[in-house]
Every structure is written in C-alpha cells, then in structure tokens.
Specification:
By secondary structure, this protein is α+β, with helices and mostly antiparallel strands. The protein has a single domain, classed as Histidine kinase-like ATPase, C-terminal domain (Heat Shock Protein 90, 2-Layer Sandwich). Helix 3 packs parallel to helix 5. The longest helix has 37 residues. It is globular.
Length: 233
C-alpha cells in the first residue's frame, strides 16, 4: 500500500509540474501586459489586448484542465458533449491547431454509459485531445470521432486523429503508454520508460481508459497520429 501511495504521489507531482508549465506562459503574459499598461503612455490598445488575450487563454486552459485532470464534473448548463467541445475549443483557441468536432447526437442520447462513467469518458476524451495536440508541434488538425458499436451492446468508441507536418509521438511517451504499473524504483530510473512531466499525461490517460474497462491504442505514420479507445462495461 505504501508503495502505491508513493507512486500515486509521483503521478500527482508530475501532473502538477505539467500544469504549472502550461499555465506559466499565459500568466506571465498577463504580468508583462500589466507592466506595459503601468508604464507612462503604456495604456494603449496593444497592451490591453495582450492582457485580455492572455487572460482568455489562461481561463481556457484552467477550465479544460479542471475537467481533464480534476474530480469536478461538468456544469450541467449544456449537454455534456457540447460542454466538452467548448472546453476543447477554448483550450486550442489562438493556437495553430484546428479542431474538427462532428455532431455526436447519437452518442449524446445513448444511455450505455451511466452518468458517472459518462463524465469519466469525457475526461478521457479531453485527455486524448491533449495527447493529440502534443503530437502536432507545428500545428495541424485534430479530428474527434464517436462510435456507438452495434456488435457490442456496451461498447462506445472514441477517436482522435492528429494530422499535420511533423505529427509524431515521442518514443518516451509511447513507452509509458505500455506501463501496467510503476514502481518507485522504475519511476526514478534513467530510462526511456521513466515518468516525467513531459510524458505523465499519456500514462494518466491510459490509466483512465483502463478504469473504464478500455484501453488506448496509438498508431501513426505519414503525418498522422491516431488515438482510439473502446469503452465497455
């Protein structure tokens, strides 16, 4: 039990490091913009636009991460999948990645997943989007797909395809996807399977999929990366 607690703490610490890194950029831009505003003659539209844009980006990331990594659920003001779309769109806004999110009314009205599992499935989908975005260092297209399987009465599929110039998954990220467990010694080892703040999100995504009775499959070639999950009761 103590070892499991240590490993869980390691994952929490690495995820926190990842979040701090991702939030530092827009937070720093807000600070810089406010410094410009406070300078003599600095209250022009450019400085204020920088502050407003950075605050919007910061809010978008915070809202996305709250659902993707946190215990909180959806607000309930919109259908869950529509709210998830808005979170993903806000997260990617202003960047070089375009989101293609098709109508998912068939999945939204399907009752195969109870409410608790539906929220977890949306957390998984957001993690798949984050994983796909990381595979597009030069920008590109993220295509989200939903499948309600006919051959399996409990099956719901989620897919994310990342396409763009240089699209790829780093070797260390692929390595942690296959980890079943992580011991304290393994996590500290200097190997390509070492958990770091740069690849821990992939490990978290796979663990989340397994908690839903599924597994993440990742493949890629020719400027495309495919991330797929089949969830079953």
């Amino acid at each position: 039990m103590e070892t499991n607690v240590q490993v869980d703490m390691l994952v929490v610490q690495l995820l926190c490091s990842r979040l701090c890194h991702d939030l530092a950029g827009p937070a720093g831009a807000v600070h810089n913009g406010m410094e410009l505003v406070q300078e003599p003659g600095g209250g022009d539209g450019g400085a204020l636009d920088l502050v407003a844009t950075s605050i919007e980006q910061l809010n978008g990331r915070l809202g996305f991460y709250r659902i993707a990594f946190g215990l909180g659920g959806m607000s309930g003001r919109k259908p869950a999948l529509l709210e998830a779309h808005d979170l993903a769109a806000s997260f990617l806004k202003g960047g070089r990645i375009t989101l293609d999110w098709p109508d998912a009314s068939g999945v939204a009205s399907d009752n195969r997943l109870d409410r608790q599992r539906r929220v977890a499935a949306i957390k998984l989908l957001l993690n798949m989007i984050l994983f796909g975005a990381a595979a597009l260092p030069r920008g590109g297209l993220l295509e989200v797909g939903f499948v309600v399987t006919s051959d399996d009465p409990a099956g719901v599929g989620l897919t994310v395809k990342a396409s763009g110039l240089g699209a790829c998954i780093r070797d260390d990220v692929m390595a942690v996807l296959s980890l079943e467990t992580v011991s304290e010694d393994d996590s500290m080892a200097r190997t390509d399977r070492n958990l770091t703040a740069h690849n821990v999100q992939g490990f978290f995504m796979q663990r989340l999929a397994k908690s839903l009775g599924g597994v993440i499959e990742v493949s890629g070639e020719g400027g495309e990366v495919q991330i797929a999950a089949l969830l079953q009761d």
